[in-house]
Amino acid sequence: MPGRRESKTSPRSREGNLAFSKQNTDMVSYEDLLIAQYLDELRKTKNSMKKRREVPQSPYSQKLPHSDYGMSNRRPMSATVAVRPGSGRPSSGARKPKIDSKFIADPSLWDPATPRSESTNSTSQRRKGRPASAPVRRKTRPFSATSNLSWFYKNPARGWSAHSTPYSACSDCNGYVDMTRSALTGRRIRSQYLNKPHTIRCLAFKNGSRETMCRVAAPSMKVFLEMCTERLGLGFAARRVFLEDGKEISEAYEIPPDSEVYVSAGENFKDPYKSIKQNIAMTNGAKWTLSGVLLPEEGRQKKTKCKVSKRMRNLLESNRYRIVVYRNGYATEPLEIVADLDNVEEFLVACTAKLGLTTHAKLLFDWEGNEVKDLREAPRLPDTVQEASSPIYGPLWVSVGEAFSPTGTIHFIKYLRRTIKGQLKEAVKYKNQVNYALADEKEKVTITDILSMADDELYSTLELAEEEVDKLTERLQEIEDKLQKIEELQRIEESEGSHYRMKHIKEWQFEHRLVGRKGLRLKVYENGSYENDQVFYFNLAGALRGTNDKNQILTRLLDDLSTNHVTANPHNPKIAPVVKKVFDQYGKEITNVHDLEYDQEIWVSFGEPFINPFTYCIQGMFEKCSAYIMNGETFVIREPLNMELIKNRETYTAWEASVGYPPYDYTQAEAPETQSHVQDLARMGRIDSRSTFLQAKNDEKVVLYPEVNCSQKLKKGGSTKIWPPEAQVWTIQKNGYIRCKSMPQLCLGVSDTKVDLTLGKETVSGFVVNIQKKATGNTYQQWQFNPDASVTCLAHPNLVLTYNGNRVGDEDNQQPEGFLPGQSVYLIVTDRRQKKESSNQRFALKQERFDNLGQWKYNDATNTEWNKKALSWPVKEDGSLNEEYDWPMEGYLLPNAPPLHKPLSKMAMSGMAPLRLMAMKNGERDARLAMPVVGPNLTNMLKDLNKEKGGKSGKKKEQHSKLMEKDVPVPETDNVEEDINLHCVDRTVRELEFIMFLDNCTSLLNLPFAARRLYDSKGNEHFSLVNLRRDDVVYVSCGEGWMDPKLSKDQQQRRILLSQLSQDIAKIRQYISLRNPEKYVLEMEGNMVANTRIIINRQWNLEEEQITQRRPTSTERDSQNLQESSRATIFDEEEENMTYHEIAHRRSEQRLNNLKWPWERLINVSQDDGADDPDAYKFTDKEMYDKYKPQPIPRISRDTLQRFVYEDGYIACSANRALVLGVLEQEGRVNQVLLVKRRPDDINQRWVIRENGEIRSKHSSQMVLTVAMPANEPFSEDEEGRPLTFSGCAVTLQARKLNMYGKAHQKWRYDAETGYIHAFFTNPYDKEITAANHADICTYAISHDSKIDQPGYLAEVPVQSSSDRVMIKNITVCTSCARAMRGRYKLQKLPEKTEFSCAMGEAKKMKLQQIGSFRVLNGKVDLSTHEADLTLETWEDTLGKLREEASVRSIAKEINAAKTVKTIKILAYKNGEGRMHQGELVCGSSIEGILSQCTHKLGLASAARKIFTEDGTLVMEIDDLIDWAVENYKSLMVDQLERILHGKENTTAEDEEDAKEPLQEKDEEQMGDNSQPEGDNSGEVERGEGEGQDSNAEGGDNAEVDQQEQSKVQREREQILSQVQIPPVDVILRYPIEVWVSSGPEFFPPEKVETKLENRKKRRAFRSAVSLELDMEKHILRQMKGRRLEAQNPGEYRSTRSSRQPVIVENNWQEPTVAEQLKHDTVHKLETHLAEVKAVQKEKIRSVSINTNRRLYQQPDMKRVLVYPNGESVERALYVWGETLEEILDNATIKLGMWGQARIIYNMEGKKVEKFDEINKDELLCVSMGKPFCKPKNAIDGIEIKANWGRARKQYGPAATDLVVTAPANPKVNVDPFGPPGLALPPAEDNTSSTANRPQSAKPPAT
User: Fold this and answer.
1) Would the CA dihedral through 408, 410, 411, 413 be positive or negative?
2) What is the distance between the alpha carbons of residues 675 and 628, in angstroms, rounded to a whole number?
3) What confidence tens digit (pLDDT) does each residue in 673-732 have?
4) Does the N-terminal or the C-terminal CB of the chain have fewer CB atoms within 10 Å?
5) The pTM is what?
């Protein structure tokens, strides 16, 4: 290179370098080997690479085919690290380990174009195998930064970078020259930035294209490839470069400057002009011939050869087919599998995987059910369903081992049949079209292709069509044949069931040795129940292991039943849940396990006797009977009924009853075998031939034998087990017949057969009752029903129908002696029984007809058991028939009925007989809607309580027995206090009965809320059921007062609405009284003794206690009154023993004593010892009485009772540490906390105070101290007349709640210093939610739509969908709303820590029924912290107004008109502060509540009064603020759209700042320093007298133009807005609205505040710059002076010509230097300038003149006046307050809702009020917007005039009002008589003056 010195290198160093050269060794590095393999693979695959997309995201995001060679994730060659000269990168020969060249497997791997000898220095780019276009960016040291020290390269201590060889570009050495020689010589190396590198400059094109190109300049080849990859958008990294002639370039110097090259990603060169050359060759060589254009051979396009991939070629060459498979038994979800015909196992594996079989596939079946073992035998899919070119075989059905199921095959064949039928239909249609064409009926041809065919083509087409039709017909017939075969297999499968497919599974019997002994499967029921059966398995083999004792085996069975989860928790366990006995269905106890059968039903008992779970009834049973003649004797034998015999004979009309066996040809039993068979049958089922039989009318040999028995009662409609279905239903007629409903020709009758039976322990005799043919007038078939539920036969009036206890299927049934074996006895008539046996003689009728339900209500039974079981009886108590029933009566005849009438003694003994009342809704007038409600049966409970108390006294029992003997009813008392108290709750038995009765009324009457109050027909309220009698009419209410049903509907509705509204308001009032409990602490109730109850009370305060002592409480007043009354009674008793004289003296002294002053009464107290004690005068010795009388208990201060100490886990009383808080016994969920004596072994006295405020019990961490909420009575105040409070509420131990909110009554704080334990120590939000849950308030009124963690429920509510279908919707509701939904919807408690908002608050939005805690105010109130009091006040006023309303519609309209509460969020700022401070986020639903919150959060000195929006709008209502927010949103949206449409969205911030600066300056000039913040009214500037007049005059001409322009802009904005969808209001209100809050002053715009602040900042910056410069100059001046003084230069002596001072001293240290003087002048100038700046920027402060002589406080001159709008009625007058006329006008504008600003005030005389002093308090004034004064009647008169004018025009036509009134001219006064009087002018002398002086409004004189 010119200008470069050659470096000399020593021979030794040169030899050292050559020793490590690759040219002198046979060793090859691993890297070279990998690169060689990479290049070979690249060469093989570069032609087969496919381009996936034009411009991928990254050229390296795609995997190359060679990526598996060498190293994983290898980068291409062009992406190697760019080794720059001097970078210190080691060469491959210096760093890599060497391997022998014999390890190179193939020498041809090396590229012949780049031999090793020539690529030693040039292959460093390919060292890492990356393309040059994608290098790895590394921080390398630039070559120009190399050191000039030669020892740097020889120092062995340097790193590997010190031994690298720097290179420089040179054309003589293949682009690189070794520069280390000059470095090793020690000479100075020339700076490398002087060497000009070689630069590649060319125009690069995409390979094969001339469209995509870019100009590239790069220093090296790899950089060039990288740039081409990015700029040309190649899909892969650029790897090859070609010249225009197709020559490939390998080095950078081969690219000529400014040449054109083609860049490839690895593919070969593609000529971009190839297509153009072909077109030119075709154009030049094309020739026109007679047959068309003849193209040359060069231009013809050759046919493209289809290249098949290797994989596809292998698939085609191999023996593989496509086979369709199904799962066995299915014809859906087919799968296609490519199978090798020689490998069936592989095909089965594929079927297993693709079909998702649970086990391995084993068998294959074709569609005929044949097993396919070789895939070559698989049938080919019919051509009709072949869709692909390659044939598809199958289908095959895959089985895992089970047999072939024809179900799936049938569906597939039916699908083929439908397909073939469709094709056949089309083929026939096509054939007919061809026939039409041949018959020259072309108008019927619809296929256009046929019309274009010639005749010969039509004939050939017809032949083809006929062949196709024949072929499809044959194919269809084959399908039908196969379908028939498969259907036979399907019928076999259906008949065999699951056994058909499970034939491959071997079946073993239970007795098989591998199975073992058969176990028992039992159906277990609880004793007395036949529902909820549970299957129980008992391992009999395990039970027999080790023992053969049947008792031990039974014990093991009982133990297994006890440990079973079903019987471990019975429904009503009376003793420990341990099974003691097992019974069968007949009540027989099972003592041997071996007697049990498989699937037997058993009943388990826990020690109690067997309770029959079944209801038995009398049934008529019909069985087949046959007659045989053997040896001259007739044998009639019964057999089980065959259902085939009764086919087509279901009704009674098909049968004929006969007495005695009907005659026909009987079967002759002559053969010995037949005779023996008949004898065997006779021993089991022979019956009497004289009985009643049924014979089929159509077949005389079909005979049935009817028999009466007793069996289990079956459900009506489900009696499929018996025939006929209604065999258990009997019909009772008035004439006494009991007929079988299914066979009305049969009835019950008494036979002449007399039998002896055993009933209990006695033997009775009677006549058998059986089924007989009905005969009219037969007394043996007529029955009489008695009042005691017994039945007697008219033929035997002394005998009673009796049930002997036999049941069908019971083995213990007794058979009378002498009775045939085929006959059974269940009913007889015998003598009356006594005591327990009388139950067998009582019967009842159970009616279950759907058309007359409720017949049981007409019975006269006094026993409640009959009403419970809904039993009926045909007669009344007097024995007459009950005509209220629907006769004839139908039902089940039940034996063993309970007594119809209960004895009076038992009724009185129980005292709690269930009472039936006719309940109606409160105010209901329709008596037909009365619902019978039966009270609860508490007899057993009362008996148990009586036993506990020891029963009644003997005297009372005697009186009671005497009353019972006389049958005198015992009067019941209404005093609930005399009832027996329950031990579990603080309630009596009567109260419990009353509450349970109301619960029944709630469900039966379908009340919207729980029933709470009960009234009789006279309106008297009852608190118990004592004074009510049976079937009394009562009215039930949900809490509202009595509503007389005699009132009109409107009056009742009015009372209901007002009552519901008052209840809602009462709830709100109760919530407000409970929502913020403060200063409540733990306290001991009463005295400090053990077992004292712990309560909470107000924290003790000395001042409050003194006040309360001065004011006695109501209880103290009551006690005083009680003492006075008791004293009066004592005096009355004493006066009985006194004379009249003494009585007179005593009363006079008492009267005089009352006239004395209190201090006069206390003068002689010490002398009169018995004055205060009324009992003292009864004793003679006063000293002894005072000594031994009971001393009063010293009163302990409440302060002592409220102090506790927490030590060692105990909460002890601070005054007595031996008394601690504890629980006696933890029973139930709520336990009372008491003050008990400390016991170390009692864990119930240990407590843990947690940091979260919970006080947990040591006994259970889930139990915490909880305040018992006060009694919830939202309809009134509490019992004592005081408002609800937490004072005196007990402290209990309850389960802790895990929700975040709603557990404020479980939060405490222990103050160790004072000893107080504070209650309700939590945030206000938790207190409010807790109070809401207790006060029955929906939490949505507090939290609105905010989702909070609170207790709640998930309700399933039916919702009406758009398609009139009822859908179930799951909603989340709070506890209060769930309480109102209880009993209506299914409720499920939500899991803990579930955040939600109550859905009842948005019920209308969600289209749900309004069923919440509120009656009418659901979702219409806001009870948040600052809104609750305002809401209560508003609705109390509304309730007061509505009480005066008489119209129901007005009340309902007013309530419904209340809008749903909308809570909005605002960002509040102080008025006058702009946005300088961060705004406060406030949420509220009313302006008053928002102002209250703003006063608190913004810290205003006075209450906030006004709210302004950003544009200064005064907000008076919450709806106005919402409307403003919506309009503001629309305005902002239109502005944004306009900016987008006009291209203003790209406006930069700098332009905005530039635009703001002149505006700020202009505002600053206009505003000056007069703008003052809020509260300072001195800065308000009033406009001058003539200010603004010129502008109005100038703009008057353009007013119309501006108006048009404004309307045009408004239309454009509306048009833009109409094209955009505005979001809902809820979306807009999600973001807070910026408002400014003021305490009175007017709105101060935030822009002005910001402008003023900005100006202050600018002035401060300007002033600070001058001050900074001044400080710097002063500092320099001080430094100069200090240096001068420190140096103390004596100066220089200079001679002068002065004789006085010939020598002077210059430049001494006391004389300031010239520079110092100049600096001093600069400082002076800066000080002067700074003073001027401060003077200019000084804000003008107005001096406020203060009158020191005025009063310190002046009474405000506030006046209240009545104002009404001008011209309207005085009835609209409202009160307003004000201190000035302007304030009165403003308040009147707001209060009266005037559309404009009130400006003038008139008094009632029409005089304008101009001064405030002219107004008197409570004066009636008229306010006007500018119009003159109009009397209140004038407006009415004007309306009347307009109405008359309209009536006249309507009645007489438009001309009726066209009147012209003329009047003569007044000679003295020239005035229009119809004009205003103010225009009257004096008469003029001449006409000219008259015309000139007349005003324009005056008219000329009329003629």
Assistant:
1) positive
2) 9
3) 888 888 888 888 888 888 899 988 888 888 999 999 998 888 776 556 788 888 889 999
4) C
5) 0.42
